From TrEMBL:
InterPro entries for this protein: AB_hydrolase_1, AB_hydrolase_fold
A GO term from the CC aspect: membrane
Signal peptide start-end: none
Record's protein name: Protein ABHD13
Classification via PROSITE patterns: PROKAR_LIPOPROTEIN
């Protein structure tokens, strides 16, 4: 059975390559096709024109979703934190793309003794949690440093910020599968660090980053302690239907979308403690989508934090924002400590 499957796979790859090449050729020769159709007509030429237009629209979706060049210096300059212990790190994904990370280290409070040395081989049970920060679809990680520093201080946690491929100083071009690989590589890197507590990894995602965080949590349920998502969407098809309500976008099949980010399906697989943060003054993503994600979640512990004055990018500046996140993290760590205590008790044999 192995040879027929290999043959089928080779035929499938050849067919996809041929279709992709033909599609590209149609896009390049669109003007010639239109002129030829105008002169001679014919259903075949009309079909080629429609295919080329569809190809252009399909490729154009990336332009509508990813904005790594906004502001204009985002690909040239990444602001670094000043006066705080941090590491500027480069890692590689499974497909060989080099990514830029910033690790902000928490060194204060009760956990100081467990993180003062970056060469420590095994963090103690009082080691701080580590938050993986996935940002939105514009700018770079340097623009999120002020927000991340407040997280570090208020939540007493390490914070790892990652620039997706094509953003900041990271290589490559952004795409949905690529962003998923970037998230996996970031988690893998954190898991290889002997000085970070692997049992206290928390995902945070805002906007597009929320979709990246949800997907990463859905396929790594045993490596993620909790997830926090803020002002994110159900899926790209849902967003298209909202933004282009004057077009029959709801009638388009999903395969028409190059990027899908189906968070409304993947969130049901995230059973770890989950916090959904919603700014009701968000003018980009309808706040009702955050409520729907919360309702779709099957997490054993889930919360919905609502901020009436919160906008799409600035909900974190609302009063009470960090109080909500801090309480969520405290309850998480308390539950974590209780589980560790229970495991320790179970390992004791009484004679």
């Amino acid at each position: 059975m192995e040879k027929p499957w290999r043959l089928w796979g080779a035929m499938e790859r050849c067919t996809l390559t041929l279709v992709s090449w033909s599609w590209g050729a149609c896009r390049v020769s669109l003007l010639a096709l239109i002129l030829t159709f105008h002169l001679y007509g014919g259903f075949f030429l009309l079909a080629l024109i429609l295919a080329s237009v569809a190809g252009i629209l399909y490729k154009f979706q990336d332009v509508l979703l990813y904005f790594p060049d906004q502001p204009s210096s985002s690909r040239l300059y990444v602001p670094m934190p000043a006066g705080i212990l941090h590491e500027n790190v480069y890692i590689r994904t499974k497909d060989g793309v080099k990514l830029n990370l910033i690790l902000l280290r928490y060194t204060g409070g009760d956990s100081a003794s467990s993180v003062t040395s970056t060469n420590q081989s095994s963090p103690t049970s009082s080691a701080p949690p580590t938050i993986l920060y996935f940002h939105g679809n514009a700018g770079n990680i340097g623009h999120r440093v002020p927000n991340a520093l407040l997280m570090l201080i208020n939540l007493k946690a390490n914070v790892v910020l990652v620039d997706y491929r094509g953003y900041g100083k990271s290589e490559g071009e952004p795409c949905e599968d690529g962003l998923y690989l970037d998230a996996e590589a970031t988690l893998d890197y954190v898991m290889t660090r002997p000085d970070l507590d692997k049992t206290k990894v928390v995902l945070f995602g805002r906007s597009l980053g929320g979709a990246v965080a949800v997907r990463l949590a859905s396929v790594n349920p045993h490596r993620i302690a909790a997830i926090i998502v803020e002002n994110t969407f159900l899926s790209i098809p849902h967003m298209a239907a909202t933004l282009f309500s004057f077009l029959p976008m709801r009638l388009l099949p999903f395969w028409c979308y190059k990027n899908q980010f189906l968070s409304y399906r993947q969130v049901a697989l995230c059973r770890m403690p989950s916090l959904f943060v919603s700014g009701l003054s968000d003018q980009l993503i309808p706040p009702v989508m955050m409520k729907q994600l919360y309702e779709l979640s099957l997490a054993r512990t889930k919360r919905l934090a609502i901020f009436p004055e919160g906008t799409h990018n600035d909900t974190w500046q609302c009063q009470g924002y960090f109080d909500a996140l801090e309480q969520f993290m405290k309850d998480l760590l308390k539950s974590h400590a209780h589980e560790e205590s229970a495991q320790a008790s179970a390992s004791v044999t009484i004679i």
